[in-house]
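Batch manifest line 395
LIGAND: iron/sulfur cluster
JOB: complex structure
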Amino acid sequence: MAEPLPLPADVRSQTREELAAQFEAWSLPAYRLDQLLEWLYERRAGGWEAMTNLPRGLREQLSARFGLRSLSLARHQGARDTTQKFLWKLADGALIESVLIPATPALYGEASDRHTLCVSTQVGCAYGCKFCASGLDGWKRHLGVEEIVGQILATESWHATEAGAIPGAAEQPPAEPEPVSGTSQPSAASSGRLINNLVIMGMGEPLANYANLLKALQILNAPWGGGIGARKITISTSGLVPQIRQLAEEPQQFRLAVSLHGATDETRNRIMPVNRKYPLAALTAACEYYQRRKERMITLEYILIAGVNDQLSEIRPLAVLARRLRAKVNLIPYNDVTGLPWKRPEEPVQEAFLAALEEQGIAVTLRREKGHEIDAACGQLRLKTERELSRREST
Ligand code: SF4
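JOB STATUS: finished
ARTIFACT:
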């Protein structure tokens, strides 16, 4: 059987400069490019035919040269004004998650009208952290630039057109996905931006998909694209040392969050295989380098897991590390994952851990939201849906 032809590059994977070169080659005036970009990022058009102020011939040229693929909503959980989880179906049928987080001062500093989206960067994950649902079925592939960018656009489109129609806590069961990352006609509801903060810590190890992530962030950061300030973008990593150093050389002032989850090699080795390749000494040196280059405060993410890393004996090494890196610590009580043995510590244990770190003079927050009610553990909704679908197929 013949190999399927590769899909044309998606137009949302292209920078303004790349598109400008194409428009120049077609001898088109610059304002046509501005019109196209407005359709893509302001109005979030889902198809070429919607771009009514572009000549038909140009729309045909564009559709022959570029793809314009939409993410389809496979499932949604959560109520308006609370954490909402989206399960997106990609063109090849793969499922990924994004999470829309309401403003919480406990998450990344200042309280405001922020709308934060937690974004995935891979289908599955190869890093196999023992407590994580995303890595349970292994790694499938990197997300393309347009699939990273598309999560923001699809969430904003969904919010503009659907949020008001879903009263109270709701869950949509898996259904035939509907494309949502655009409308066939522009409308007031479909334009304007919602997301003004990004955390790159959904499914996958972001820095393992470095080139696509950085290009996507370039598009999301640009005034002609997502318009999200670099300082409002937090990139998370489980500890890929060479890429942290590489990121330190980039011109943008992204925030860095390290998924630490243990302040000794012994604890990290137990739950995070990546630590065997890049032990704490190497990770700490890379973080210090990032901090020196960027003069940005680093966040240390610390998922509290009962009996694994919630003992008060962990406080001292964690405080030493946080002080050395001048880092803030974000404590996140574990969200139980079906099929995994790890448990969330009782609330008094969480509070005692928080208080002990505060006593050490560390800037620390404890996330108190009840995220587990909506399968908040990273990768949990995808796993649940894939298993439900495969059960249906086998009956
Ligand atoms: S915690 Fe992050 S890096 Fe670790 S397996 Fe899960 S998605 Fe991968």
